[in-house]
TrEMBL record:
This is ClpP/crotonase. Keywords: Membrane, Transmembrane, Transmembrane helix. The keyword Membrane applies. The lineage of its organism: Eukaryota, Fungi, Dikarya, Basidiomycota, Agaricomycotina. It comes from Hydnum rufescens UP504. Pfam families: ECH_1.
Length: 272
């Protein structure tokens, strides 16, 4: 393959790029607008396509079942503000096929699919969180194996309670699995607490804090990627991660479109 690969392939306005800076590391840079909102096109044609390209390239270098390798996911490199601002809520609220894990009436799958593939992916994944990381993006970062985050001004937050969005089972399962205590889960979800990098590092949710903005985050992420790439040699890395996170996979399979607050209120009033 010839790198960098701009995604969507053939688009005059790419939303992401895949780089292969060393023989054992790949890098996915997200540059979808100002804040990398997660929507159909971005997930389907950038995130899912990038995982597919990296897997194919990694498999081409395997001798039997595995080879060293690691993937870094980073927000737009030319800024210091956003990793991703989460789901394009207005664009997905009326789409009943956005969360379900399997095809619904022929419609393609989206959010749960990227969570599945991150969990099942064959090499270690490092989230290089170079700015704010909200809602669905925080969950996506939590499905990665390691997190390197800027030590500067940036928050990780689940703010669904503030704008009235029910949380899908898949996201709730990731939070319950990855966050260290039920109190932290409560703070994250029901209080929409904005966690600072220092808080998350103290909780063990972020593995490395990096100074120097996006450049510093990427330097530390590449150090970690090179240190962990050898773990993929035996070919069982993704299988083990999937087994450990089976509760998340099962929850995502059960996901259904949750009733919205306004509809729930209408039903409640009808019963009075």
């Amino acid at each position: 393959m010839s790198y960098p690969i701009k995604l969507p392939i053939g688009s005059p306005a790419p939303l992401g790029s895949v780089h292969h800076p060393t023989p054992t590391t790949w890098e996915l840079e997200m540059h979808h607008g100002v804040d990398n909102r997660l929507n159909h096109e971005f997930i389907d044609k950038v995130l899912l396509k990038a995982l597919d390209l990296v897997e194919k390239d990694w498999r081409s270098s395997t001798t039997e079942v595995g080879a060293p390798g690691a993937l870094i996911i980073v927000g737009k490199k030319s800024q210091q503000k956003f990793f991703s601002n989460g789901l394009d809520y207005e664009g997905t609220i009326n789409d009943f096929g956005f969360f379900p894990s399997f095809r619904v009436c022929g419609a393609p799958v989206y959010m749960n699919h990227i969570l599945f593939l991150n969990i099942m992916f064959l090499v270690p994944i490092i989230a290089a969180i170079n700015g704010h990381c909200f809602a669905g993006a925080f969950v996506l970062a939590l499905t990665c194996d390691y997190r390197v985050m800027t030590s500067g001004r940036a928050w990780c937050c689940m703010n669904e309670v503030e704008f009235g969005a029910p949380m899908p089972s898949s996201m709730a399962a990731v939070l319950n699995y990855k966050l260290p205590t039920s109190k932290i889960v409560r703070d994250a979800t029901l209080d929409a607490h904005r966690f600072t990098p220092q808080e998350l590092h103290g909780l063990g949710v972020v593995d490395v804090l990096a100074e120097g903005g996006t450049d510093g985050v990427l330097r530390e992420a590449h150090k970690l990627a090179e240190a962990k790439a050898g773990r993929a040699k035996t070919g069982v890395y993704g299988l083990m991660r999937t087994d450990m996170m089976k509760v998340v996979v099962n929850a995502a399979k059960l996901d259904e479109r949750r009733i919205m607050p306004a509809d729930a209120a209408t039903l409640a009033r009808a019963r009075l």
